[in-house]
Specification:
Blueprint lengths: L3 E2 H7 L5 H9 L3 E3 L2 E2 L6 E2 L6 E3 L2 E2 L8 E6 L28 E3 L7 E7 L2 H8 L7 E7 L5 H9 L1 E3 L2 E3 L3 E5 L9 E7 L6 H7 L5 E9 L2 E2 L8 E3 L2 H6 L7 H12 L13 H26 L1
Parallel strand pairs: 9-15
Antiparallel strand pairs: 1-4, 2-3, 2-5, 5-6, 7-9, 7-17, 8-9, 10-14, 10-15, 11-12, 13-14, 15-16
């Protein structure tokens, strides 16, 4: 097995986060093969090295876990909170492996939250270049006009940069009122409180926000506070965009219109030009000799 940093090994074993693992190492509470270690960058082989934390041997678990969790409103997207507020970590206290959230949902929001012990998977889902769609059901305190929604599609400035939705549609709900509307909003970014900030730019307050899908993985009827492990087929759905066909076709056309920038031609030095000229003369001379031999 490839050597890994000690803090990463402890994190993947479910002992603690990498940051807290560094603190344990600095405090001399971690032993590797019977010796206390204080060096933060030390690398270990979890298959061979005996690692002990605060007197307890560490057992490594390498199976990758992927979970869909229905985060309730009023729960922090973190594993622990110094102020004692409810966290998503509390729902997995008895799980045999340390799972961490992929991305975040704010305190007032609810819905689909992915949990895993696979850092590479988490990075692939959160990386902006992957453009993983996140779909939300949004209730606002008013009735935005089409021109307002078009602004959200085009993009509006928020804290953290410009943000936009890739798709918005009005949805019908049993509790519809003349005072507010419901929308399905799809984004590919993950800026802090992005949708709330976006609607604030068109003078609308978000009354309710629920993430209903990541890619084409939908939360369905999963009850609040409950979770389920994902199958391989469900994991693949995460990478499939939750967008109508016409929107997908438009994105494909735009991608094809991007003209690649031609690579700048490298300017050869005098010595390189001379070598190139010499090689050409050699090839010409070689062909003349071959003709002479064949002619004889």
């Amino acid at each position: 097995m490839t050597l890994v940093r000690l803090n990463k090994a402890l994190s993947e074993a479910g002992i603690t986060s990498r940051r807290k693992a560094d603190r344990l190492i600095e405090q001399g509470l971690v032993q590797v093969n019977g010796k206390k270690v204080f060096e933060l960058g030390i690398r270990v082989n979890p298959n061979k090295d005996k690692i002990v934390v605060e007197g307890n041997p560490v057992t490594f678990f390498y199976k990758k876990i992927y979970v869909m969790f229905h985060k309730p409103k009023g729960v922090l997207t973190t594993l622990s909170d110094p102020e004692g507020r409810p966290t998503v970590g509390e729902y997995f206290n008895n799980y045999p492996v340390r799972l961490f959230p992929v991305g975040r949902l704010d305190w007032e929001s609810e819905g689909l939250l992915l949990m895993t012990n696979d850092g590479d998977f988490a990075n692939s889902v959160m990386h902006p270049k992957k453009e993983i769609t996140k779909s939300y059901l949004v209730k606002v305190n008013g009735k935005p006009e089409k021109k307002d929604l078009d602004k959200l599609i085009s993009g509006v400035p928020i804290v953290g940069g410009k943000a936009k939705a890739v798709f918005i549609e009005k949805v019908k709900r049993p509790e519809t009122s003349d005072q507010y509307d419901w929308f399905k909003v799809v984004i590919t970014e993950g800026k802090n409180r992005q949708i709330r900030q976006m609607f604030a730019k068109i003078d609308m307050d978000v009354m309710k926000l629920q993430r209903i899908a990541v890619g084409r993985l939908k939360i369905g009827n999963l009850p609040r506070g409950e979770w389920t492990e994902l199958s391989e087929n469900q994991i693949q759905k995460i990478y499939q965009p939750d967008l109508p066909e016409d929107v997908l076709e438009k994105k494909t056309v735009l991608a094809k219109k991007v003209v690649p920038v031609e690579k700048a031609k490298t300017k050869l030095s005098k010595s390189q030009l001379a070598r190139q000229k010499s090689e050409k003369k050699f090839e010409i001379h070689k062909k003349k000799i071959q003709k002479t031999v064949l002619g004889n």
